[in-house]
Specification:
InterPro entries: DegV, DegV_C, DegV_domain_contain. With 282 residues, the chain is α/β, with parallel strands linked by helices. The chain is built from ten helices and 13 strands. The chain binds myristic acid (MYR).
């Protein structure tokens, strides 16, 4: 078997694997004032948040086309790969991974396994990382997929946004329209349930919402019961991410927290200044 790992640009990838020879990233487009930008190819996070502030129209995202995806798969077949694990953002927030099922058998001699991570961002980057590490260690396809399942079933994310408007207008908050009236004066903590974004708890202030995220992450850490990865992810809010890292590492002295950022695609749906906490098995 010659295996390639494909993921999409919403994965925040650890630096050490970004140039791995068996890793390939398909960019997801964002549309700003009618112009299409491929994430991390045409635009990076820093510039995007600036542009988003100035945009006249509400920003949008879309899925890579079947043509673009098939071109990538075909090129990998030509490079000698016969198997691909295609690791993507949750089917609860984008139809992309589900739609891959209709093209996965299109390239003769190539087995494509679409993998629905039920999440995105740093935990998804960790799934790509774990798959590559296992590949390098000589593990077989079943072993790699079983390990991805362990990470997926132990992944939890809690996050707050500065303004719920983007999530509600983009249609990514389950029951968002029904919730919004009641959420005006509070800071909701959001989470993923069955791959969808839902309200976790209504909290009175940002400070209390952050304390609640720290507490619930600590509880999850005990439940997972094995070494974990702990992530703080920010939407152009590095100062707050650093403060939270210090607090978490003080509270849970046996862990190191890694900081990453939300790129243009997730930034489109969460808006600027979002902050997320994520935990998963190492
Ligand atoms: C599409 O338009 O189908 C592709 C992109 C959809 C991205 C939706 C992102 C939702 C926000 C994710 C929050 C993650 C917090 C850890």
């Amino acid at each position: 078997m010659k295996l390639a790992i494909v993921t999409d640009s919403t994965a925040f990838l650890p630096e050490r694997i970004r140039d791995h020879q068996d890793l390939f990233v398909i960019p997801i487009p964002v549309i700003l004032d009618g112009k299409v930008y491929n994430e991390d190819v045409d635009i990076k996070a820093d510039d995007y948040y600036k542009l988003m502030k100035k945009s006249k129209e509400f920003p949008k995202t879309s899925q890579p086309t079947f043509g673009e995806t098939l071109d990538l798969y075909k090129s990998l077949k030509e490079k000698g790969y016969d198997t691909i694990i295609s690791i993507h953002l949750s089917s609860g927030i984008s139809g992309y991974v589900t739609n891959l099922n209709s093209i996965k058998d299109s390239v003769e001699g190539l087995t494509v396994i679409p993998y629905d991570t039920q999440i995105t961002s740093m935990p998804m980057g960790h799934m790509a990382e774990a798959a590559l590490d296992m590949l390098d260690a000589g593990k077989n396809l079943d072993e790699i997929l079983s390990y991805l399942d362990i990470i997926r079933s132990s992944t939890y994310a809690y996050f707050i946004v500065d303004d719920l408007n983007n999530l509600v207008r983009g249609g990514r908050l389950t029951n968002g329209a029904a919730l919004i009236g009641g959420l005006l004066k509070i800071k909701p903590v959001l989470t993923f349930e069955d791959g969808k974004i839902v309200l976790f708890e209504k909290i009175r202030s940002t400070k209390k919402a952050l304390r609640r995220c720290e507490e619930v992450i600590g509880k999850r850490k005990e439940e997972i019961g094995r070494p974990v990865k702990l992530y703080i992810i920010h939407g152009n809010n590095l100062e707050l991410a650093k403060k939270e890292k210090t607090r978490l590492e003080k509270n849970y002295s046996d862990i190191t927290v890694e900081i990453g950022h939300f790129g243009p695609v997730i930034g489109t749906h969460l808006g600027e200044k979002a902050l997320g906490f994520a935990i998963c098995a190492e």
